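Possible regression after last week's pipeline update?

I re-ran a chain I had predicted before the update to compare outputs. Posting the input and the new output here so someone can diff against the archived version. Not blocking, just want to make sure nothing changed silently.
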Amino acid sequence: MQQKDNGTLISYRPDIKVVDCTLRDGGLVNNFRFSDEFVKDLYKANIKAGVDYMEFGYKASREFFNEDDFGPWKFCDEEAIRKVVGENNSDLKISVMSDVGRTDYKNDIIDRKDSVIDLVRTACYIHQIPTAIEMAEDAKKKGYETTINIMAVSKVNDEDLDNGLELIGNSSVDVIYLVDSFGSFYSEQIKRLTDKYMNMAAKYNKTVGIHAHNNQQLAFANTIEALTNGASLLDATVSGMGRGAGNCYMESLLGFLKNPKYNLVPIMDLVEKHIQNIKNEGNVWGYDIPYLLTGILNSHPRTAISFIGEKRGDYSKFYQELLDIE
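New output (post-update):
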């Protein structure tokens, strides 16, 4: 693999792109029920901050999800996005997420020429890669930029991951994402995996992205580790908002990146205006001991979410319960 110039702490790489996932990952906290004011303010703040992509949410199928149970960003209808962005006369690109098995992609993802969406990301588990490729190829033919995000990689053995990466490499997909779904990885593991993904990327002329979770308070550190080793697309959310322990803080990431196009101030202003109000509505996310324990044990955070929802405080007992599950 040809060595990539990964820059220094006082330089910047022009290939770096910041992806705001606040509405999509943060939507898992409040069932995508964000106020119109917040969504519009987030859009404007991302533009002012120089963020490269804003992910509005999921392209979920109404055959699988009851529309009354969610806000509009579970479905990301074209009309709903246009109410916020108009024709999106800005440098900010618009993204949506399509889940394997939960998206009617042939009908709900329209041709790019008729849409303000620029990027369609497809999320899958390792055994779903062939279907994810079919979905991403469909989006590519319709004119979109595409990614495949392999979830729960911490549960995947090397042979299966290598084979999966080869399949994606032979597709037309633009970006392959390293996803730390359970917040279980340490920096050494992120470095090894990023090297693996970058080797595939070099072989097939792809780009690599990173999506980190904060169970062990390592989302920002692991994002920096991945970019240091060549990852170009970096996911983050405002104040780390996301299911369970949340994600890499946008505030931290923009504060770290040296490209003068990025501006931290608009995001701080957004936090000041909105984030405490969102928390006051009863929405809970961020590092906590139950998420630390699921991260350490490489477990899905659903058990920790239930623990916190039940307002339990018996951490040692919960740890033993997790060990029994494992």
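Follow-up from reviewer: compared with the archived run. Residues 17-280 form a domain with the TIM Barrel fold (CATH 3.20.20.70). Marking as no regression found.
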